[in-house]
Amino acid sequence: MVARGTLLNNEPLAKYTSWRVGGPAQHLYIPENKADLIEFIASLPAGEPLYWMGLGSNLLVRDGGIRGTVINTRGRLKEMYLADSERVYVEAGVPCAHVARFCADLGLTGAEFLAGIPGTMGGALKMNAGAFGGETWSIVERVEMINPRGEVILRDHHEFEVAYRSVKGLADEWFLSTQLKLSKGNSEASQQHIKALLEKRNASQPTNKPTCGSVFKNPPGDYAARLIEACGLKGFAIGGAVVSEKHANFIENRGNASSEDIEALIEHIQTQVQTQFGISLQTEVCRVGEKA
Q: Is the pTM of this model over 0.90?
C-alpha cells in the first residue's frame, strides 16, 4: 500500500499542540482522508503504538516525545453532512465549533454547546467533552470505530459507559466518525445562542493565549477554578507556565514553557488544593509521551 497522506519522521509536535509544547513524534501521519487512514492503519506492524491528535487541545505531549505513530486529523477527516431530517454525520477531524454552526444553520438544536469546545469531534467523543452544561455523548446516536488491524466497526451509544469527562469501552479502538441525533429548532435562535455562549467564553477564559482548555475536571459539587483561586494560585508560575489570571483552571504558556514546566505546575496545583481543601483534583488534560 502506498499511503496517499504525509508521513513525517522525528517530527516536533509543539507546533501541533495548542499549548505549543511537546517533543518529537517518532512517526507522524497526516492522512489524505478517512479511506486513506484506514489503509494506513491496516498496513502498520502489529503492536505499533498509535496516538491520535486533532487540534492538539486537551493534550500535553511531554518533552521526550512519543514513540510510535501519531495520527494527526487536523484538516482531515472533515466530512460532515445531513444524514436525515434530524441526524448529522460528522467525521472525527471536524472541529466542534464547526459542528455547532453547521447544525444551527440547518435549524437543528442541541449541538450549540459544542461551540465552546476547542477541539475536534474525535477528541470530544473520547472524553465526553462538554461546555456550558452540555455534553458530547448526550447527542451521540452511534459511532464508527477503527481497530489496530484497520477494521471498521459501527457501535451504538449503549455499548459505551459514559460519565462526566469519561468514556469507557474503547478497548483499542478509535473514533472515525459519529452520527448525532438532534431536534428540529429555529436556526436564528440557535445562532444567537451560539453567539451568546462564545461571548461568555471570551469574557471568562483566556481564549487568545496558548492553553489546552480546562486542565482539571470539576470535583462533585464544586469548581476546580474556585479551589485553585482560593489557594491564591492565580498568576503563580513555574518556568514559562503560569496559572491564568483570567480563569484559574487554565494554564498559559508565556512563550518559553516546556512540558516539564506545565506538568510541574499541574502537580503543584494538585498538592495545594489537596493540602488546603482535602480534595484531589483530577486532570482533564491527557498527558502522553516520555519525559526528557
A: yes
